[in-house]
Design goal:
Pathway: Carbohydrate metabolism; Entner-Doudoroff pathway. Its cofactor is [4Fe-4S] cluster. Keywords: 4Fe-4S, Carbohydrate metabolism, Gluconate utilization, Iron, Iron-sulfur, Lyase, Metal-binding. InterPro entries: 6-phosphgluc_deHydtase, Dihydro-acid_dehy_C, DiOHA_6PGluconate_deHydtase_CS, ILV_EDD_C, ILV_EDD_N, IlvD/EDD_N. The structure is a single chain. The protein folds into three domains: 332 residues, no CATH class; 34 residues, no CATH class; 180 residues, Glucose Oxidase, domain 1, CATH 3.50.30. It is globular, with a radius of gyration of 24 Å. It is α/β, with parallel strands linked by helices. The longest helix is centred in the N-terminal third of the chain and has 16 residues. The strands form three sheets. It has an eight-stranded mixed β-sheet. Strands 2-1-3-4 form a four-stranded parallel β-sheet, sandwiched between helices. A two-stranded antiparallel ribbon has the order 5-6. The chain contains 25 helices and 14 strands.
Length: 609
């Protein structure tokens, strides 16, 4: 183990000592009880099993067979989740074959950020995570299950399911993925058409044709955004069956891996003699959280996880912050180039070695904790062997990966990485604290110093771009986009015009208290600025023409304004009409309590603390 890995883990453990101890005490209290059907009253049991087939009722009550709960994020609006439609039947059949019973405990909402991008619905996106966590709790609160299978993939869904499950930390849990869609149009070609559209050089018909060639079938979108970063992190945390993240939805292996997930849940349920329980609250410890952070950095993953995994850790009584990410980033090499920090898609990443290769390299370099309580093996080393084929008996056969990546333009060893440091950087200064994803940004763009142009809506910025007002070196400051203001939407509508300006040779950067997520690209963007403008953050003091310095080398984010003037300068306030617009319509009224009570981005944007 490297000194940095040990130091960061030890610091997190010390910081979290009291909260983690309290969490484990609660876990022990609930984990030491008799099984649900035995401690409940007869009327409760009757309600719980009323809809089960007669033979399953007999198994649960008389034979006391293991009973699994399924929490599903199925809907057929999300391409990634559409394959889950058939999973309950497959899971029931496999459980029956293994002598167990299953009930779908409940469903959780699952929205597609790709659909709501740039629209009012995106203002519910971040808060949907905690809504999913609460929905998971509602499903599991029937409290009759020996273990749970969690069906979810995309952006807020996995963190929400994980947060909800960790509030049932005594319960063994296995996440069940469904895999990515097949490769469509290249990401480079897609980005080019978007920029041409932003310049008015192609029309809506050509843009729609391009987008439809990129997003064209069942499965996860193939760029390395938040959804696919989720899958990488779950592998690194040992919460999947090994190597199951990026197998296609309709591959023969996929059904075999889903059946294996059922067997895995039973094996860790504590109901199989000689096999100890692995409750999720013990699996997700400080080492497990650090492994997820390292995997994110080593693959140039989604910046959303500097919010989500802070919240996930909090759900397990573990306290992390952006300084922990930043210190690890200085020591963790960048091993992967997957769009947007490269040209490959996630299918090429998988073909080159995928999560198993990354985990093996990091373990061998002493940059991950091997001795963790993974659901799919005795240690994290089990996750370096990949599914290869389905055996005659229907089981999954695994094999070791080749010693080298099959494509060193996509994956490289820890001894010869793309970069000696990870893909994320902490920025701080008189504008607050922010993060930047540098893995996709050209090195000559890591430092930008230019006059500010301040906006409070995406639409105002786009109007200025279309009017030619931004044809210069510029730092676009977009404020009042934090969780208190409007739910902290992603701001991808800004990526094409900013890319156009950068392509013309201008020095361009974005500074915002909003999000850019897993698709943060080639334009330097200081995002998640905390404290946010509406909560009294200094971003509210910036004026047009202030010189802003974003320095991803030294970690600075400053307004070059005289200190006395800066201290005396009043903070701008949000236009009441904009505030009213953010609060009403398309369900936004229902989330007013979350906007009021949410913690800062660096504190995980939690609404439940």
């Amino acid at each position: 183990m490297t000194a940095i890995l040990k130091a960061v883990t030890d610091r997190i453990r010390a910081r979290s000592a009291a909260t983690r101890e309290a969490y484990l005490e609660r876990l022990a209290k609930f984990g030491g009880r008799r099984r649900g059907m035995e401690r409940m009253g007869c009327a409760n049991v009757a309600h719980a099993i009323a809809a089960l087939p007669s033979n399953d009722k007999f198994k649960v009550v008389a034979e006391r067979s293991p009973h699994l709960g399924v929490v599903t994020a199925y809907n057929d609006m999300l391409s990634a989740h559409q394959p889950y439609e058939t999973y309950p039947g497959l899971i029931r059949a496999e459980a029956a074959r293994l002598g167990a019973t299953v009930q779908v405990a409940g469903g959780v909402p699952a929205m597609c950020d790709g659909i709501t991008q740039g629209l009012p619905g995106m203002e519910l996106s971040l808060f949907s995570r905690d809504t999913i966590a609460m929905s998971t709790a509602v499903a599991l609160t029937h409290d009759v299950y020996d273990a749970a299978l969690l069906l979810g993939i995309c952006d807020k869904i996995v963190p929400g399911l994980l947060i909800g499950a960790l509030h049932f930390g005594h319960l063994p849990c296995v996440f069940v993925p469904a895999g990515p869609m097949s490769t469509g149009i290249s990401n480079a070609d897609k980005a080019k058409v978007r920029e041409l559209y932003a310049q008015g050089k192609v029309g809506r018909e050509e843009l729609l044709k391009s987008e439809s060639a990129a997003y064209h079938g069942a499965g996860t979108c193939t760029f390395y955004g938040t959804a696919n970063s989720n899958q990488m992190l779950l592998e690194a945390m040992g919460l999947h069956t090994p190597g199951s993240a990026f197998v296609h939805p309709h591959a023969e292996l996929r059904d075999a891996l889903t059946r294996e997930a059922v067997a895995t849940a039973l094996a860790i349920s504590g109901r199989i003699e000689g096999q100890p329980a692995k409750p999720i609250g013990k699996v997700v410890d400080e080492r497990c959280i650090v492994n997820a952070m390292v995997a994110l950095l080593a693959t140039g993953g989604s910046t959303n996880h500097l919010i989500h995994w802070v919240a996930v850790a909090r759900a397990a009584g573990i306290l992390i912050d952006w300084s922990d990410f930043s210190e690890l980033s200085g020591a963790v090499p960048l091993l992967a180039r997957v769009y947007p920090n490269g040209s490959a898609d996630v299918n090429q990443f998988q073909a080159a070695g995928g999560p198993g290769y990354v985990i093996r390299e990091l373990l061998d370099a002493g940059l991950m904790h091997e001795d963790v309580l993974a659901v799919g093996g005795d240690s994290l080393r089990a996750y370096t062997r990949v599914p290869a084929r389905v055996a005659a008996n229907g089981s999954v056969e695994r094999e070791d990966l080749p010693a080298t990546s099959t494509d060193d333009g996509v994956l490289r060893p820890a001894t010869a990485p793309f970069s000696t440091s990870g893909g994320l950087k902490l920025l701080q200064g008189n504008l607050g604290r922010a993060v930047i994803k540098v893995s996709a940004v050209p090195e000559d763009r890591h430092v930008v110093e230019a006059p500010a142009r301040v906006f409070t809506t995406q639409e105002a910025m786009l109007a200025a771009f279309n009017a030619g007002e931004l044809e210069q070196d510029v730092v676009v400051v977009l404020r009042f986009q934090g969780p208190h203001s409007n739910g902290m939407p992603e701001l991808h509508k800004l990526t094409p015009p900013l890319g156009v300006l950068q392509g013309k040779g201008f020095k361009v950067a974005l500074v915002t208290d909003g999000r850019m997520s897993g698709a943060s690209g080639k334009v330097p963007a200081a995002i998640h600025v905390s404290p946010e403008a509406l909560a009294g953050g200094p971003l509210a003091k910036v004026r047009d023409g202030d010189i802003i310095r974003l320095d991803a080398v030294t970690g600075e984010l400053i307004a070059k304004v005289d200190a006395a003037e800066w201290a005396a300068r009043p903070a701008a306030t949000i236009d009441p009409r904009e505030a009213d617009e953010n609060a009403h319509g398309l369900g936004r009224e229902l989330f007013a309590g979350m906007r009021r009570n949410v913690l800062s981005a660096e504190e995980g944007a939690c609404t439940w603390i």
